[in-house]
Each structure stands twice: as C-alpha cells, then as structure tokens.
Design brief:
Elements (H helix, E strand, L loop, with lengths): L2 H7 L2 H25 L4 H24 E4 L2 E4 L10 H28 L3 H5 L3 E5 L3 E2 L7 H16 L4 E3 L2 H4 L9 H8 L3 E10 L2 E10 L4 E11 L3 H16 L15 H14 L4 H17 L4 H16 L5 H18 L4 H13 L4 H14 L4 H13 L3 H14 L5 H11 L3 H14 L6 H11 L3 H8 L5 H14 L3 H13 L5 H10 L3 H13 L15 H4 L2 H9 L7
Length: about 575
C-alpha cells in the first residue's frame, strides 16, 4: 500500500479537512466576538496562532492513533482485520458536510445580511472628524475645530452611541485618507464629517454622516445662519444623526448648553489654545476663559474648561500645581453644579481627589457617579484605571485601560496601561507598549525614561543606558542616569547625576526619592518623599508599586507615608 493510500485509510485527509473548516469558522467567530467583549487585540492573534499550531498536531494524532469501540489506541496495536476506519471515515464525511453547511450559512449572513462593522460592534459607534475650515481667514480654524468638538460632546451624551474622543478623531487632520480607512483605525461604524465657513456673523455648515462599511452617505445637510443660532444647528445635526442611526431613546436627544455668541466664540478660542499644550498657550487660554465667564458666569462648559486648563497647565509648567489645583477643583465643582452630567469635570475631580487631596473615598464617590452616567466614556474609564493603578490594583487598572482603548483606540490609553502591564509582571507586554509609544512620538518627554527603567528592572543595563540617553526631558534623563550608573556600580557617576537632578529644582521630588531609595540612602529618601507629599508630586501615583522604592518598604516610616497619601499600608 502506498503512503498516500495509507493516509487515506487512516482518515488523515478527512481529519485535515474537518480541522481546517472548523478552525476557519472558529477564527471568524473569535474575530467577531472578541472586540464586542472588549478583549485586547493580541488575544485574537494568540488564539489564532494556537489554532494554527494545532493543525500539524491533529494530523500526527490521526496518523498515530485510531478510534476503536474500546477507545483510542495506537494504530500499530490495532488488528487490521478488526479496524473500523471505514466507519469512522463515513462519520467524518457527515461532520465535514455539516461544517460546510454552517460555514456557507455564516458566509451568506456575513455577505448579504449583516455589514462587517455591525458584526464587530453591537453598539452604534461614530467618530466626528475635524470639520474643514472653509473660511477665507485661516485663523478661523479654531472655530471649525470647536464646532466639531461641540457636536462630538453633544453626541457623546446620547445613550447607546459610542463616540470616539477628540484626540483620536482629530488625529487625521491634514491626512488624505478615505473614510473606510479612518473608520477602521478608529474602530467605528460611522463617521461624521463636514465643513464650516465663517464670514463675520454669518455661518455656513455642511455635515455628512457616512457609513464606513459601504462608504455611502446616510444623511447630509447644509445650514446657512447667523452665529446666534449656532446651538439650534448643533442640536439639529445631533438629532439628524440619531434619526439616521435609528437609535432608540427613552428621552429626548441631548441639547447644547447655550450662551451668547460672543462668549461662545471666545470659549472655542480658549479650547483651541489648550490643545496646543504649551505654558504660554495655557496662560492665554486662562485669560480668554475668564472673559467668557465674565460675560456668562452660568456657562457650565466654560467652568469645566477652566478646570481642565488649570489641571493640565500645571503639568506643562504654566503654574505651580500647589497654587492652581484648588482653583481647578472649584471650577470643576461649579461646572457639575450647573450641569451634573459633565464627564470631563467629573474625571478632573477624580484625578484631583487622588493626586492633590489624597482622598480616595471622595474619588470613589465621584467615580461611581461618573461611571453610572457614562459607563462607555473613555475619559471616565481612564480615570477609573488610574484610580485602581494608584492603589496597586494593576490587573483591574489594565481592564479599565483596555476598555478605554477599545472605545477610543488612538487616544493613548494603552500608553497609560504600559506601566500597569510591566509592574504587574507582564513585562514583555509593558516593554512592547513603551516601544510602540516611542515609535509614535519619538520626541515626547518621559517615554524613553520609562523604557529605560523597564529595561533596568529586567537586568538589561546596557539597553537601559542606550534608552535613557535618548530621553529629551532633562529631569527624567538625569534620574535615569543616576539609577543606571548605580546599577552598573559606578557610584561616583550616579552621585554626579543625582546632584544635577537636585540642582534642577524642586519639581522632581519623587524622582529624587526613588534614586536615594535605590542607592540605600533611606534617611535622604524619606526626607525627599516628605517634600513630594508636601508638593503633591504627581510621581506619587507610583508609590505602591515602584521597584525603586523597595528598600523603603520594610522601614516602619513607609506605612506613615502610605497613610499620608490616602493609601492603606500592606499586611
């Protein structure tokens, strides 16, 4: 009997067909259901690789073993005269036919009944792209961007509609990409695009709702009106989108919060300046925002924006956080008093409660309310992730980060998750995310430092040194050098870097703490962590899991540190 004939006799070909068809069907189901369950992208790849790896194993088993009435036996132990491989072969034929019927049914449904995007996401999902500025004055770009963002914020309040954040949706500005490509990257089913033409007090807005799967317009309209009617037009666009997507609402479509035309134009200009994220732009935004509130002190979005610019501006050097965080908190509280369901203001209150007041009970209450109002809001989910991460609940933090990433894939939520991955023991995943972040933004401050620290922890000292030398932030570069030279046994060079770090000023109090702790200088480490607590240093978010503080953890003074920052000491 030839080798081919023996393969046929042992049903190896039939097993190959059954496995191939079943594997294809299973992979299709996984690719459809895993995104709905908000499982990470790598999980689909992992399961697919495992399925493919099982194919040769199935063939080996089919060759080496035979199914008999007494059970599975090695083929060589079965008497050819008593072999039932022909019966088993007929049964496999019926299995093949059944699988092919199911596969054809799935293919027909996929092709003719359900659109690909609908299969991927059972919740309606949309991205609002930055509307084109069609005005003669290019400086009116702030206005077209602002209109786009306000429509986005309005749609984000629609129950049952998942809306991609501004940072993700606006990332395609200036790129000549088609709608299906942008929608695929944003993982949305629909895209709202448009243009704004402003001439004095006259406006012309064109908007189009596009279905990504077919690249076809579901709805479009053009509005010509005066600036004072802008809120009615925003409401009309939101209502048209809801109607076109056939979203069932228990109540009315959310309405825009109105103010005067002058205040609104200034509000949009302030938002545009905040997005530039420089110390000077934050200062300009503050002056403009205060003018908005002089005109309309009851305009809730302006209070929320004031809280945002103080909170973010203190991180970009516009102000000392000790001075402006109380102002940020008061502004956020005013905003939620005027408009309770304000995701941005709620998220800011969560962050301030944790980082600046060390009040985790208050943060938990704010977070519970916010999650109840917007369980699929990426801003709130990111705040929830940091809430868990600060307390050392790294796996729970990862879950929230991944859910935020699934909703808003280009907003950098996985960069936030990178440290949680690394310090939870999933070091390869953490390092991979550090490297991905650097590839996207190679000149960003801090990213090269955290990659260097990760490599240092894993024992790759030379790799850590190469990474830290690329860090553009002087404070972070000096801290990294101090730690790495200490690990290399170059104590003098470590001391030199530490002294330069201290000379940089008081902003790096937590970083200085980590260096002293790593060098075994515990008295100095506790002195500097006291300063970090006094300054509400944002580096304290790492206090529960930073490996560079390990030398401090057995010291009785460390329990007091945890209590002072609102955390519970370990057992």
């Amino acid at each position: 009997m030839s080798f081919i004939d023996e393969l046929k006799r042992r049903n190896v070909f039939r097993v190959a067909i059954v496995y191939a068809v079943a594997a294809w069907l299973l992979i299709q189901i996984i690719a459809t259901t895993f995104p709905i369950l908000h499982l990470p992208d790598w999980s689909v790849t992992l399961v697919t690789v495992l399925i493919l790896a099982g194919f040769p194993l199935a063939l080996i088993l089919a060759w080496a073993f035979e199914l008999t009435p007494e059970g599975l036996k090695k083929e060589k132990d079965v008497d050819r005269n008593r072999s039932i491989t022909p019966v088993t072969g007929r049964k496999l034929d019926f299995v093949i036919i059944a699988l092919l019927v199911v596969t054809l049914g799935y293919f027909a449904y996929d092709k003719f009944v359900a659109s690909p995007v609908e299969l991927q996401d059972s919740i309606k999902s949309i991205a609002v792209l930055a509307f084109d500025n069609m005005s003669e004055d290019p400086d009116n770009e702030y206005f077209s961007d602002g209109i786009s963002e306000e429509i986005l914020n309005l749609l984000a309040r629609v129950p049952g509609l998942r809306v991609t954040s501004r940072s993700s949706a606006f990332s395609f500005k200036g790129q000549n990409l088609d709608v299906p490509t942008m929608a695929a990257r944003l993982k949305v089913a629909y895209v709202l695009a448009g243009s704004v033409r402003k001439s004095g007090n006259q406006l012309r807005i064109t908007a189009q709702l596009i279905e990504a799967a077919t690249d076809s317009h579901l709805w479009s309209d053009t509005y010509n009106f005066e600036l004072e009617n802008i809120f009615a037009i925003q409401d009309a666009i939101a209502e048209s989108v809801v109607d076109a997507l056939k979203i069932q609402l228990l109540g009315e479509v959310p309405r825009a919060i109105e103010t005067t035309p002058e205040a609104y134009a200034l509000y949009l200009k302030s938002a545009f300046l905040i997005e530039q994220r420089t110390a000077s732009s934050f200062l300009q935004a503050e002056a403009i925002n205060k003018r908005v509130l002089e005109i309309d002190p009851e305009y809730a979005p302006a209070w929320s924006q004031l809280a945002l610019l103080y909170f973010q501006g203190s991180a970009f050097g516009a102000w000392d956080s000790v001075d402006v965080i109380p102002r940020a908190r008061d502004a956020a509280l005013t905003s939620v008093r005027l408009f309770e369901n304000n995701a941005q203001a709620r998220a800011i209150l969560v962050h301030i409660a944790m980082s600046d007041y060390f009040d985790y009970e208050l943060a938990a209450r704010e977070l519970e309310f916010a999650l109840g109002q917007g369980p699929d809001n990426a801003i709130i989910l990111s705040a929830a992730a940091e809430f868990e991460q600060r307390q050392g609940n790294l796996e729970e933090a990862i879950r929230y980060y991944e859910k935020a990433h699934a909703i808003d894939p280009l907003a950098g939520h996985r960069e936030g998750a990178s440290l949680a991955y690394f310090y939870s023991g999933r070091q390869a995943e953490g390092i991979s995310l550090f490297e991905e972040a650097i590839e996207r933004t190679p000149f960003a401050i801090y990213l090269h430092k955290i990659l260097a620290m990760a490599l240092l922890v894993t024992g790759d000292v030379e790799g850590a040194l190469a990474a830290i030398e690329k860090e553009p932030g002087e404070m972070h570069r000096l801290q990294g050098l101090a730690l790495i030279y200490q690990a290399m046994g170059k104590r003098e060079r470590s001391t030199e870097a530490l002294e330069k770090l201290i000379a940089e000023g008081s902003k790096g109090t937590f970083e200085i703490t980590e260096v002293h702790a790593y060098r075994g200088e515990l008295d100095e480490a506790f002195k500097w962590i006291d300063r970090a607590i006094e300054r509400h240093d944002r580096g304290l978010r790492h206090v529960t899991y930073s490996p560079f503080l390990d030398n401090m953890r057995d010291d009785p003074r460390f329990d007091d540190v945890l209590l002072r920052v609102g955390l519970k000491p370990g057992p």
